[in-house]
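Bumping my old thread because nobody answered last time. Still need a sequence for this structure:
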């Protein structure tokens, strides 16, 4: 089995170590070409059995964003209900969503009907 070159392995290790979970966003528009480049790279990743079951929907309308936010808030409230006392207080303080501030919102789904 052929291994990746050590330089690639180091770069990948650095990339994974540097990654951050982002929930604070700048307000300037996202460059469409850069967004498309990122989506193209994401969609090239193989899936199990090469079924590629993912579906990506861009939420552009205020109504779609509001519906997605309501869905998140409902799920988050249900998750919070699973915690008691100190753990519930800790969970409630976490910033788990940046949906109201994100300049671009994408919904990524798994199409379970994909063969």
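Sorry it took so long. Here it is:
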């Amino acid at each position: 089995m052929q291994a990746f070159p050590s330089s690639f392995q180091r770069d990948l290790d650095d990339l994974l170590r540097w990654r951050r979970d982002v929930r604070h966003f700048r307000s300037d528009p996202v460059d469409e070409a850069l967004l498309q480049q990122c989506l193209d790279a994401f969609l090239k990743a193989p899936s199990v059995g090469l079924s590629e079951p993912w579906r990506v929907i861009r939420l552009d309308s205020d109504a779609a964003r509001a519906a997605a936010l309501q869905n998140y808030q409902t799920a988050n409230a249900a998750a919070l209900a699973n915690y008691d006392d100190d753990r519930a207080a800790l969970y409630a303080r976490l910033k788990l969503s940046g949906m109201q501030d994100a300049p671009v919102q994408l919904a990524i789904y798994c199409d379970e009907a994909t063969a």
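The longest strand covers residues 54-58. Let me know if any region looks off to you.
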